[in-house]
């Protein structure tokens, strides 16, 4: 819910106190300024955000699996309230990863994430925070997995934009693929956690999966 | 005074969307399911309803199509969450993304269409009353259906045995299971009904409220806001509808001001 509060606050700042006196909204960075961002490697168009993201992934891995503070978070003990914390941390890493990798494909033309050049537009372009949650799940809630899932998701985004410009399909078609990806991935967990058994006797309301107790306990 | 009557009328008009969606989510909530996919269901229902209205010209068929679309998506959500035991929040989120993308894809050729002004239903005698008439009794029939539905759902949840079972399943699925109730089937039914109501709300937006289809049109209008009323502890249907109206009055005061200005200009 705070998403909508933050969006309004951002809108107020961009069109209010932080407005560019010479323009209508927040000052936009020119392309030459964006090009002046430090590069990850000389001669490549990859932004330094990628390096920051990869460092963040390493830092989160150490925090989660090699420090005492990360133990309740990484241990997934329901009583310790760890799951939420862990997911929070990993999602945070995913935001960085997705932001940096998203920039990768666009050569900084549309900067996003923490170092966004055009905050209002980054927020309105929307869905990056929500997509990051998907990234975290697809990455199996593991910092290193997040890197690979972020690459996958950024391919969806770039593919969606290409589909829009070359095939005339709406860009939001990306959402269809993101949604289907998450659907199948989440459903796949059932096959990981439970073994399918075909019973001849008709079990009540549990013909396809063998998880009656767990199914009813889900809140 | 006339402008205030128009304000009330516009509030009821935009509040109907929220009321339908919130009632649907309330049923889900009472059955112990949090469906964050309301946005997606409403968008798909909006395009389904709009397409039906464009081709048949019948509002009621459009609402039916919207309800069917919402119910279909909700059924998919329900099977995933209830039978395959997936995370409710993540699945709902996926449904939102899927619905937004799918509706944009399907609705591509409907962006140019526009529905004609629908005929406003006037309650025979009451519509001619000086202030109350324009404020309350010159509305689309769905508004009265929403109010009736609020009462019906309140009665169902708190005065009927099946409503009691539904609430029991929401509050303690283990106990209900031990008593022999088919927890998962009842939950799926609640999810499907909730999805159908969200679908009606989505169809109402595109068919009655705006008369056109825009990609992602429910954004910041209904899906997310309708979620908040039932999420409050002890959300009840009546308070749910009352709150949606107060939210709606905030939402539409802007658009209403424009409408009032234009009516003043014309008179």
Please give a structural write-up:
The complex is a heterodimer of chains A (about 220) and B (about 270). Helix content of chain A is about 65%, strand content about 0%. Chain A is an all-alpha fold. In chain A, helix 3 runs antiparallel to helix 5 and helix 3 (about 50-65) runs antiparallel to helix 8 (about 145-165). The radius of gyration of chain A is 21 Å and the shape is extended. Mean pLDDT of chain A is about 65; it is low at about 75-85, about 100-125 and about 205-219. Chain B has about 270 residues and is an all-alpha fold. Chain B is built from eleven helices and two strands. Chain B is flat, with a radius of gyration of 19 Å. At the A-B interface, helix 7, helix 9 and helix 10 of A face helix 3, helix 4, helix 8 and helix 9 of B.
Rg calculated over all Cα atoms of chain A: 21 Å
Using DSSP, what is the number of strands of chain B?
Answer: 2
Order of SSEs of chain A, N→C?
A: HHHHHHHHHH
Largest interface: A-B, 39 and 40 residues
Query: Main beta sheet of chain B: strand number and arrangement?
Result: 2 strands, antiparallel
Shape type of chain B = flat
Give me the side-by-side strand order of the main sheet of chain B.
1-2
Q: H/E element string of chain B?
A: HHHHEHEHHHHHH
> Could you estimate the helical fraction of the residues of chain B in percent?
over 70%
What gap, in angstroms, lies between the N and C termini of chain B? 14 Å
Could you list the spans of chain A in which at least 5 consecutive residues all have pLDDT below 50? 74-84, 100-125, 206-219
Helicity of chain A, in percent? 55-70%
Main structural class of chain B: mainly alpha
Mean pLDDT of chain A, as a whole number?
63
Q: How many whole angstroms does the radius of gyration of chain B measure?
A: 19 Å
Tell me the number of helical segments of chain A per DSSP (H or I, 4 or more residues long).
10
Q: In oligomeric terms, what are we looking at? A: heterodimer
Unreliable stretches covering 5 or more consecutive residues of chain B? 227-234, 249-267
Arithmetic mean pLDDT of chain B: 79
Q: What is the CA-CA span between the terminal residues of chain A?
A: 20 Å
What percent strand of chain B? under 5%
């Amino acid at each position: 819910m705070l998403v909508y509060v933050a969006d309004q606050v951002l809108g107020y700042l961009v069109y209010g106190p932080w407005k560019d006196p010479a323009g209508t909204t927040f000052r936009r960075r020119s392309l030459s300024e964006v090009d002046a961002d430090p590069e990850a490697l000389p001669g490549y168009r990859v932004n330094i955000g990628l390096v920051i993201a990869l460092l963040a992934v390493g830092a989160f891995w150490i925090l989660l699996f090699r420090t005492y503070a990360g133990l309740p978070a990484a241990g997934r003990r329901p009583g310790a309230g760890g799951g939420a914390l862990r997911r929070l941390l990993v999602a945070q890493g995913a935001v960085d990863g997705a932001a940096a990798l998203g920039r990768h494909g666009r050569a900084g033309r549309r900067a996003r994430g923490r170092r966004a050049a055009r905050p209002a537009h980054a927020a309105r372009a929307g869905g990056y925070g929500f997509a990051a949650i998907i990234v975290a799940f697809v990455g199996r809630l593991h910092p290193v997995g997040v890197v690979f899932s972020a690459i996958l998701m950024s391919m969806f985004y770039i593919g969606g934009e290409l589909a829009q410009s070359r095939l005339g399909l709406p860009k939001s078609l990306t959402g269809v693929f993101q949604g289907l990806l998450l659907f199948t991935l989440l459903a796949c967990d059932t096959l990981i956690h439970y073994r399918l058994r075909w019973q001849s006797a008709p079990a009540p309301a549990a013909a396809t999966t063998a998880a009656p107790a767990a199914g009813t306990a889900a809140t | 005074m006339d402008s205030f009557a128009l304000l009330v009328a516009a509030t009821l008009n935009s509040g109907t969307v929220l009321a339908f969606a919130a009632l649907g989510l309330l049923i889900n909530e009472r059955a112990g399911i949090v469906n964050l996919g309301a946005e997606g269901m409403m968008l798909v229902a909006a395009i389904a309803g709009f397409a039906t209205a464009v081709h048949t010209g019948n509002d009621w068929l459009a609402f039916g199509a919207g309800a069917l679309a919402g119910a279909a998506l909700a059924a998919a959500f329900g099977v995933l969450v209830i039978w395959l035991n997936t995370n409710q929040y993540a699945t709902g989120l996926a449904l939102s993304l899927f619905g937004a993308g799918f509706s944009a894809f399907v609705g591509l050729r409907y962006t140019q269409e526009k529905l004609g002004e629908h005929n406003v239903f006037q309650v025979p005698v009451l519509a001619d009353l000086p202030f109350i008439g324009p404020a309350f009794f010159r509305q689309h029939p769905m508004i009265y259906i929403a109010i009736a539905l609020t009462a019906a759902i309140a009665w169902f949840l708190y005065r009927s045995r099946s409503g009691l079972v539904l609430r029991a399943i929401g509050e303690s699925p283990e106990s209900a299971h031990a008593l022999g109730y088919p927890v998962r089937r009842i939950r799926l039914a609640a999810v499907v009904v909730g999805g159908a109501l969200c679908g009606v709300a989505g169809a109402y937006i595109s068919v009655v409220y705006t008369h056109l289809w825009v990609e992602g049109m429910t954004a910041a209008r209904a899906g997310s806001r309708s979620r908040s009323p039932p999420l409050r502890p002890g959300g009840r249907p009546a308070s749910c509808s009352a709150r949606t109206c107060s939210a709606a009055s905030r939402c539409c005061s802007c658009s209403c001001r424009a409408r009032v200005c234009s009516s003043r200009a014309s008179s």
